[in-house]
Amino acid sequence: MAQIGSFGDLTFKVSDKFVRTFDGMSWDFSAKYATHDRHIKADLIEYMGPEIETISFSMVLSVFLGVTPLKQIKKMRKMIRKGYARRLVIGGKVYGNYKWVMEKGSVELQRFDKKGNLWAAKIKVTLKEYPKR
Predict the structure, then answer these.
(1) Terminal CA-to-CA distance of the chain, rounded, Å?
(2) What is the 3-state secondary structure (H, E, C) of 15-63?
(3) Which of 46, 74, 124, 127 could cross-link to 55 by cystine, CB 3.0-4.6 Å?
(4) For residues 104-133, b (16+ Cβ closer than 10 Å) or e, as one string?
(5) Nearest Cα residue to 73 out of 83, 60, 84, 54
(6) Are 133 and 85 a contacting pair, CB within 8 Å?
(7) How far apart are CA 85 and CA 98, in angstroms?
(8) What is the pLDDT of residue 18?
(9) Distance between CA atoms of 29 and 16, rounded to whole angstroms?
(10) What pLDDT shows up at residue 133?
(11) CA 74 centroid distance within chain
C-alpha cells in the first residue's frame, strides 16, 4: 500500500484494494491591504500582512474502494469539532508554514444499500492555516 500523505491521523493511501485519497486540491493565499482615501489623487494602499491561507479538496469514500464512508466522515467531523491542528504532508513535503485545522466539511451522501447503509459519499474539506502564536 502506498501512502501519498497525511493530515494528522487521516492518511491518504492507495493500493489495488484500497483508495482513500484527495481530488481537486486548491491552495489559496493572499495579503491584507488597507486603503487610504486621498483628495484629488488615487487612493493609497498599505500592506497590512498576510491573510490566513486555505487548502480545499474533495474525497470519494466508497465501500467499493475499500473504505467505510460513515466511519471516515465521523473521523473528519470529529477533527472539525475538536479543532485538531495538524501538519499537512503530501509526498513527504510539508505544506504551509506550520499546521492546519480542518475548518469545514460538506458531504454528499451518494449511495445506500437496501438496509440504509451508506456505501458511497463525496466529502469536500476546507483546511485553514493555523499559524504559530
Answers:
(1) 37
(2) CCCCEECEEEEEEECCEEEEEECCCCCCCEEEEEEECCCEEEEEEEEEH
(3) 127
(4) ebebeeeeeeeeeebbbbbbebbbebbeee
(5) 60
(6) no
(7) 9
(8) 87
(9) 35
(10) 81
(11) 15
53 close to 96: Cβ distance less than 8 angstroms: yes
Q: What is the pLDDT of residue 57?
A: 97
What is the rounded distance in angstroms from the CA atom of residue 36 to the CA atom of residue 32? 13
Q: Cβ neighbours of residue 21 under 8 Å, at least 6 residues apart?
A: 4, 12, 13, 14, 59
Q: Residue 51 corresponds to which cell in the numbers above?
A: 491573510
Per-residue pLDDT tens, the chain, 133 aa: give them. 789 999 998 999 999 888 999 999 999 999 999 999 999 999 999 999 999 999 999 999 999 999 999 999 999 999 999 999 999 999 999 999 999 999 999 999 999 999 999 999 999 999 999 998 8
Q: In what order do the strands lie in the sheet with 19-20?
A: 19-20, 10-14, 2-7, 85-90, 93-112, 118-130, 54-62, 22-28
| pLDDT confidence of residue 54 | 97
